[in-house]
Amino acid sequence: MLLSTRDLTKTFPGTRALDAVSFDLKAGEVHALLGENGAGKSTLIKCLTGAYRRDSGDILFEGQPIFPQSTLEAQAIGIGTVYQEVNLLPNLTVAENLTLGHQPRRLGMIRSRAMNAQADEMLSGYGIDIDVRRTLDQYSVAVQQIVAIARAVHLSGRVLILDEPTASLDAREVQMLFDVVRDLRARGLGIIFISHFLDQVFEISDRLTILRNGRHIATCPAAEVDRMQLITLMLGHELQQETATRARPVADGKDAIRFSGVGRRGRIAPFDLTVHKGEVIGMAGLLGSGRTESAEVLFGAAPSDSGTVEDSDGPVDLRNPRAAIAAGFAFAPEDRKTDGIIAELSVRENIILALQARRGWSRPIPQAEQIRMADDYIARLDIRTPDAEKPVGLLSGGNQQKVILARWLATNPRFLILDEPTRGIDVGAHAEILRLIEDVVAQGMSILVISSELDELVAVSHRVIVVRDRQHVSQLTGEDVTTDTIVRAIAAPDLTPEATT
Amino acid sequence: MTTVLRRVAPQLLTLVAVIMLVSIYFPSFWQIVYVNERLVGIPIDVIKRGAPVALLAIGMTLVIATRGIDLSVGAVMAICGASAAWSIDQGFGLWAALGIALVAGLICGLWNGLLVAVFDIQPIVATLILMVAGRGIAQLITGGTILTFDNDAFSYLGSGTLLGVPVPAVIWVLTGIGFGLLVRRTALGLLVESIGVNLRASTLTGINSRVLLIAVYMGSGFCAALAGIIATADIRGADANNAGLWLELDAILAVVIGGNSLLGGRFSILASILGAMIIQTINTGILLAGFPSEFNLVIKAVLVIIILVLQSPRVLPQLAYLWRGRRDRSQRPKQSQTSQQNAGTETKT
């Protein structure tokens, strides 16, 4: 065995994050680590890389017990990690990033030419042809991801841990990354792969290990389980078959919000949209096609520079988010960490924040009322937290997303915009969030869901808007809402994939 | 109440330790006598002389909580002091002088706030402008001289007493209570902490972050105006070059000793005021101990370093670990390791 853990245990105040977990990684395999948010994947990785100190148990590297105290020590032993958010310096060149800390020097001065040559050599065999003298931020996230991998492999060389590496990549980039991963596997590295995308897990993995509530549940070859079994193992219970809700007729349009000709130069071409009461509108398109830009126009985060917005009471003011919230709008953004949560504030404070902002500073929500609201939403949305006073930044991704949903539900909006509501969220929370969408829609709320997961869009949406090249290109309704038609609409009109890139 | 006490416990302990240290050199520290209708003693001196830094620290706490910094407060003190002295000189009377000085402070704050919130200039640069230019403005107001005046009603604010207590001390206590109630009895405190932690997310949540930022800098300007009034009233004259000189740094230090993160977020005004009192006790203690005056700054620096190192999130848990380890090293080694981690996260907040 290349890397093993024996009865690894780690407790945090209030939770046992890892409970006697044993895990093996062979050389030359891709081993997927699966589990809901909070199952213990991150904790296990952090123990392996020295970011956390374990409470008990052993970590064996080629049979020898190791005690990494920091990621640097883990790297020296041979364990390298690449995270979802690339941990490199975007303002340095690719070569500097690759060689940082061990640049070739003469008399203490860095030898640029030798450094660039070394960088070129490090990248050879990764199938990307880039200029290492340019700064890293000029390249796509996928290329940055590969640069990070090249650096980790160069420094460590034995074990590579990939934590959600594909979360912000599109399908083509994922394939590019997977080619690299397969190549590294052939070179005999042991690779731990963490992802919420089960299709990708099945595509790339040799074996799977499933964790649940800090316990090791099962390890098996990927070929021997199917999707349903896997989800059952991860959740510990059968997943209910998602029911199609599309059949419901849309109301007569009395209370509709009508956007006409709204857009923003350079971001999204002017478009029309009518939002009916109790309707779920899906929005599909490739990354960068103008989906998020549309949402930002609708919410006033990047206000429209054209067109009008009206409802039954007359014009609606969407100058800025404040105005949009006053008009009953709500927006759960794509990037939870930078645009959503206030990490240091407690779960309670995060939940009441939007409502408090709308009431104004001079009318604080009484403490007792805050506690009641927080407890209510924690129970209703099944937010897993020891208590309402825990800083929200310490919760797992899915629970953070639920806190943001709670924040908006507390304002009782009429139009809720969800940008990638299930990204980076485990299947359990995923299903819960979809159920929640159905619930609030039944109460008359209107929702716009932006998602890359077409299955999800098809399951919840009454109609789907397709965005391409910063334009709303088509709208699918009724029987037309299938993954097939959406894919075709994204690729149309000439059906050549190049046209959409 | 208990949560407040727990929050300021390190500052209280530090203050007690510093006082004990001073008492060793100067055993009659606690001798307070009542003469000529005023209390006289070292603690009284500390709360009086500490008034400017305590006032500046109140405003600075809020600015730092928004992840900003206000370097201009010393210069704003000079501007406001000069404005007040000028008004008295012109014969406008006490109330007009106070009003003009406070409005001058608010305008300075508005200027800083506009640069930070509307023009999106980094706070350290935005307030540096007024820090440098402010003394020039103050000199223009005083006409380049030390503008002295004779007005008993106004100098009462600097050197008078109320029921025996120096008026400057009364002013900072009332201001502290006022600001404390303002931020904690309304939602202002929460909203300020929110924009300090994550400005973008806060704006998307509907918080009027622009207005809030401007208000916070205006609050800082207001506190600086009060400090400037006290400093001017105390010496019965406006010295554009020396009023409030370097006090912005003492104010920032007070906020930091108060355990408030320069990265914004959670804040405690009370802890910052305790920080200001710690600094003043050190200042006074050094003078009393009779060291040659050239040692003062160095000794102060050494004490401040010790305090900050002891409060550091890296050192405190280690000390706690050693202390706990001695108590129950044999029974629960694992337990202490987790609580060590716990202590680490707690001190961060």
Question: What characterizes the major β-sheet of chain B?
Answer: 2 strands, antiparallel
- The tally of domains of chain A stands at 3
Helix coverage percent of chain B:
over 70%
CATH class value of the largest domain in chain A: Alpha Beta
Order of helices and strands of chain B: HEEHHHHHEHEEHHHHEHHHHH
Class of the largest domain in chain B, according to the CATH hierarchy?
Mainly Alpha
Total of DSSP H or I helical runs spanning 4+ residues of chain B = 16
How much strand content do the residues of chain A show? 15-25%
Oligomer: heterodimer
User: Which percent range fits the helix content of chain A?
Assistant: 25-40%
Q: What is the CA-CA span between the terminal residues of chain A? A: 43 Å
Strand content of chain B: under 5%
Instruction: Look at the helices and sheets of chain B and give the structural class.
Output: mainly alpha
Arithmetic mean of pLDDT of chain A: 85
Mean pLDDT of chain B: 88
Question: Any idea how many domains of chain B?
Answer: 2
Looking at CATH, the homologous superfamily of the largest domain in chain A is P-loop containing nucleotide triphosphate hydrolases
Question: What shape does the CA trace of chain A take?
Answer: globular
Ends apart, CA distance between termini of chain B = 18 Å
Instruction: Name the structural class of chain A.
Output: alpha/beta
The largest β sheet of chain A comes out as: 6 strands, mixed
